[in-house]
Design brief:
alpha/beta
């Protein structure tokens, strides 16, 4: 099966070459984390359709422009209002071959009628398979999440769980990959440095 890069070479190696084409990936992280840097790494790897559900299109472009990464020119669309699911469905149909779809965050779509949301995820999966693309659903795991979060993670092919912990004066970020459909999930977490980009910390923890 064709693998598509995450944009992070060390992580690609640990995942056996990247993410299988046709996959839906859930990136679960708290709102206060630097999880957006993951999205920008994926954008850097290939042509991208970026659907923003909370921030404005201008805010996303400004955030991307302030990163030191060479990202290119993703197509950014702001979806919201009363029918974000319908807007997302229409835009997904424009996804080109071997590209990346980002939905940032997916939370407002999870608030839709559960049956319509499940249908959306199934349609998304079919389109990803047909175009050899991947989707990144940025799932904020804050103080409140929709009941359909279980559905999001169940239907996803890959789950990235980013945990941010503050120990004294140190901010520690660890990535778990508990689900990797069609391959082996990672047995251990990966320590990350999230400053201007995503860097895998290869130093060993000494307890």
């Amino acid at each position: 099966m064709k693998r598509l890069s995450t944009g992070i070479s060390v992580l690609d190696r640990q995942l056996g070459g990247g993410i299988p084409s046709g996959s839906t990936l859930v990136l679960s992280a708290t709102p206060a984390s630097q999880s957006e840097l993951f999205l920008y790494e994926f954008i850097r790897a290939r042509p991208t359709l970026y659907l923003t559900t909370l921030r404005s299109e201008d805010a996303v472009r400004d955030s991307i422009a302030r990163t030191p990464l060479s990202i290119g020119d993703p197509k950014i669309a702001e979806i919201g209002g009363d029918a974000p699911l319908d807007q997302a469905t229409q835009l997904i149909g424009t996804l080109p071959e071997e590209s990346t779809l980002v939905i940032d965050p997916v939370n407002p779509l999870e608030a839709a009628d559960p049956s319509r949301y499940r249908r959306f995820l199934n349609q998304l999966g079919t389109h990803l398979q047909n175009t050899d693309s991947i989707a990144i659903l940025h799932a904020l795991s804050g103080r409140h999440t929709e009941p359909t979060r279980d559905v999001t993670e169940y239907m996803a092919d890959v789950v990235f769980d980013l945990r941010t912990e503050i120990r004294g004066s140190e901010v520690i970020n660890k990535l778990a990959v508990p689900k990797f459909r069609g391959a082996s999930a990672l047995e251990e977490t990966i320590k990350l440095n999230l400053v201007d980009s995503v860097q895998v910390d290869t130093s060993r923890d000494i307890a």
